[in-house]
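Example 3.2
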Amino acid sequence: MIKQFVIMLVIICCIYADKILIYDEEKGIIFVDKDSQAAKKPIKESVKQTEPAPPKTIQQQSPQKCIGITRAKDPSEIHINRKKDPPELYFKSGLEYYKNNDFHNALKNFKYAADQDIKPEYLLWIGKTYRQLNKKIQMFTIMERLLNDYPQSDVADDALFEMAFYYQKHNHYQKATETYRQLIEQYPFGVSYSNGDEFLDIAREQIRRMRGEMMSALTLLGITGEDPAEAYKQFQRSENLPVTGVADYTTVKAVKQEYNEKVKNDEIAAESTRRIQESRKYAFILSLIIGVTFIGILIARLKIIQNRKLLMELHGMVSDLQKGQV
C-alpha cells in the first residue's frame, strides 16, 4: 500500500508540475516551421556495450518541485520493484517530446518502443525524428526498411510521402515528383497517419506547386514556353548546365538563385526609380517656390518704382505751389 501511495503521489506531482508536456496529435511535416524550432540540448548516449537503461517517459520524470519525493540518481531505477511500462507509453512520450521540439529525447523513446515491440508506426516516427535532426542517411534507411518490410501497413504511404517531401524541400524536384507519383500509384487511397489528410490530393498539389514555381521563375528570367521540359532546356543551355530537360537539383538551385538575384535587382531598380521620382517632385516644388518668390520680388520692385514716381510727382507739385505763392 505504501509503495502504491508513493507512486500515486509522484504521478499527481507530475500532473501539476510547471514543466509537464501536453500531448496533442501531430499535424504533419508540411505544417512544421523549421525556423521557429528551438531544439533542446541532446542527452549524451551511454557508451557502454551492455543494454542501456530505457529512457524516461514524460510520466516517469519526477518534477523538482514535488515536496517530500527524492529523485532517483540512476535513470535505471525507474523500473525497480515494478513492471516496466509498455512500449506504447514510450511511443506516446516520444510524440510529446517531438511536439515540443525535444527530438533527441523523442528519438530515444521511439527507439526503445521499437526495440521492445517493433511496429511500423514506431519506425515511421523514428524516421521523422531523424529528418528533424538532419540525419538524411538514417532517415532514408528507416523509411526504405518500412516500405520493404511493411508495404501493406497503414504508414507505408506516410514513409513514401516523407521521402518525397524531403526531396522537394531540398530542391530535388524531379525526384520529388517521381516519388509523389509513386505514392499516387501505389496508395491512391492513402491517408496521413498524423492528420488524416488524403495523400492523393496532397501529392497532386505539391507536384503542381513545384511546376508552377519553376515556370513562374523562368518566365521572370525571360524564358517563355508552355512545355516545362523545353523551358528547362533553354535555361540549362543559357547557364552551361547539363541539358536534361528536367528539374534536377542543379537546375532548381540555379533557377532559384537567378530568380532571387533578379528580384533583388528589380527591387533595387524600383527603389532607385522611386527616389528619382521623389527627388524630381521635391525639385519641382522647390522651383515653384523660387518662381513664386521671384515674381513676388519683381512685383514688389515694380510697386517701389511706381511709388517713387508718385513721390517725385508730388514733390514737383509742392515745389510749383511754393513758387506760385512767392
